[in-house]
Amino acid sequence: MAENDTTDRPDESGYSRRQLVKYAGVGATLAAAGTMTGTGEAWADDTASRRPRSGSRGRRWRAGDHHVHSEYSGDFDTTTTPPTFLKGADAVYPIVTNAIMGKYFGLGWMMCTDHGGPNHSKVNLEQAYPDLLRSRQLVPDVLQFWGMEFDAPALDHHTLMIPRRNDEAQVLFELESRFAKRDAYPTDPARDTEEKMVEFLKVADRMRHKPLVLAHHASRSATGLGVYGLDTPREFRNGNNAAPQVYVGFEGAPGHQAGPLNGEARGGYGSYPTHGGYDQMTARVGGLWDSLLGEGRRWWITATSDSHVHWTRGGTDFWPGEYSKTYVHARDEYADVMDGLRSGRVWVTTGDLVQSLDVTATAGRQEAVMGETITVSRRQNSDVEIEIRFQPLDGENGNGDRPEVNRVDLIVGEVTGVGTNLDSDTNPTTEVVARFGRRDWRRRGDEYVIRHTLSNVQTDLYARVRGTNTDEMEPEADGLESPWDDLWFYSNPVFVNVR
């Protein structure tokens, strides 16, 4: 090999260009690019080369990940004025490496969400964004959103997803520089208040092309069951009240799921654990998620990698799509993926336990799927048929396993309206109304089908579904067991209104 030939030398990812070419099948493009480090000239974003619009029937389940870190999640040398950005000090992979690995593990969309810091808005604008444009050119099969892991005032980190438009870089710069609590230098305590968070959400809600905001690892700072830390029920409600089309959910399954493979807590939840890999706010039946749904809030869950450093390199992470996936029912278009996330056409899984999931509520001629609502009459026959369809993984998952669904649960709760207690984190009406084992579903083509009738429905309600490869009746608190042995999928709800 020639002295200057880097084909087989590892880059910051720990993989050589030859290996990355193998993973992504983009050899010719990478050869033309010449390097994987993302330090070359910025590529123009040619809007004329966007995918053609498909019809409304072009929607299908598309796997993605909205919480992925690149080498632009760094550190800051505060001995200089202004502080100097230290690239790659926290997460280590170039943006394009994450996109290549996401494609390899079956993702059709993803998002770069780097940490902020003093004057990081300029780093995003001047350094990271040109690399994102370049990555879009190198890996065109993956829709790559622009945004960040927003340093939310008074709360833990959040996704801030910017609509795909020619002004997306400037939009993020303005929001980050104005509202991210760590962007100000010197530090400004007035940037770290709940009032500032609500102001940010109201500004975002007034934008013609609205961004999306979703909470990350919401209970990672909790010290017990229902003993919350940085993120609280009150703050979620106040934020959702301020911007119901912007602030729409939280991670049901947080990232850092590979922690146990290196002796660390799953998700980095060191004070109070995840349950089956899911945050307590999601995993607890009748808990906070159900409390929010019971108020009629359109509040959705997702699953992400939070990838910084792969576990084989000493980190606690899987590659994007390797373990956790957020499926959105959408066309192969940026706007429709965002619309799916905003509207709740979403389900999540770990370990590729299933590769498709549909939950449908039917009453008479009405039909609703995840995120939608049907209306029935209290005076007429108000039976609601719930149909659950899922497709097992066709092949092996990222661990080389062929996981099998052991049980599926149907969970139903009443919708009683917005309450007066902003701190409420329970919905006592929520329960598992039916559990289905392998003898309870029938095969139809490549799918398995389950049907259940909710008889004589007399109150507003929602129905959601979960499934597992375990025999646990409820997801148990996680220890250091392999995450590959403890897999769950969750749907977002379908709603039923009664009048």
From TrEMBL:
<dbReference type="InterPro" id="IPR006311">
    <property type="entry name" value="TAT_signal"/>
</dbReference>
<dbReference type="InterPro" id="IPR016195">
    <property type="entry name" value="Pol/histidinol_Pase-like"/>
</dbReference>
<feature type="region of interest" description="Disordered">
    <location>
        <begin position="40"/>
        <end position="64"/>
    </location>
</feature>
<feature type="compositionally biased region" description="Basic residues">
    <location>
        <begin position="50"/>
        <end position="61"/>
    </location>
</feature>
<protein>
    <recommendedName>
        <fullName>Phosphoesterase</fullName>
    </recommendedName>
</protein>
